[in-house]
Structure prediction request, 297 residues.
Amino acid sequence: MQGLRHKKQRRRSSSSAAVTYPLRHLQTDGCVSESSADRGQDTAPEYSRMRSRLSFYVCYLLCLGLSLACLVCVCYWSSHWRGGFAWDGSGKQFNWHPVLMVAGLLVLYGNGAVLYRVPLTWGQNKLPWKLLHAALMLLAFILSVVGLCAVFGNHNANKIPNLYSLHSWIGISAVALFAMQWVSGMVGFLLPWSPLTLRKLLKPLHVWMGAGILVLSAAAFISGINEKLFFVLKGGSNASQAYSSLPPEAVCANVLGVLIVAFALLVLKILNNSHWQRPEPQPAEISYTPLTQEENQ
Prediction:
């Protein structure tokens, strides 16, 4: 009898414990799942940011590699097949034109355009990067103007008309828009008296115009390469192979055109990726400081 009483008491105590704490195991499981979910929510954005930055740097290194490849290819074409460089009104002076235009209106311009997308510049004082961006663009513009002087000097010395081809129209339009872009950027983003409303209005137009100038430049380069090859690779009496037979010079120039298109498309991809844009400043940080002071935007 006593054994039966002890068994009944144990059953009652276990049932009362179950009634008193009916959700004990559920609460424990819930705590574990919630903590694991919190850890997942914390690690997912960080993983996404790391992956985005890694993909950016892959594209950026490829962009630098294409820049170097374009410069090497255009210099090799001009020196190996076109006779080298001079400033005497001859064809050697003309050879400065493609080299300087590629260096200025493509390589420096494209790399200067993606400067703000580099994650290492985020969270830092923006003023030095603004000045570096403006300096790169100014150097690109100067090289482009010298490249135009080279071709105009060669044409004038040899009684060749200027600005008659589609290539020349596109090229001069790109340089003219580039000049306007640099002046408007200087006035809107660097001068101390530039109001915040002007900068907000100018920024999307500045970015859109910058991409448009790059597209115009790539079109000018491609048309200029074809125009030059049609002029110098006629075959027959000038002791050169025809362009249609695809001699080594044509292969080199065509490769240059492909590299230019690849570089321009990669720069446009970097500029149009919203995940690679510099984070916007907080409202408390938007107040403008003059050029001579630090700016934490």
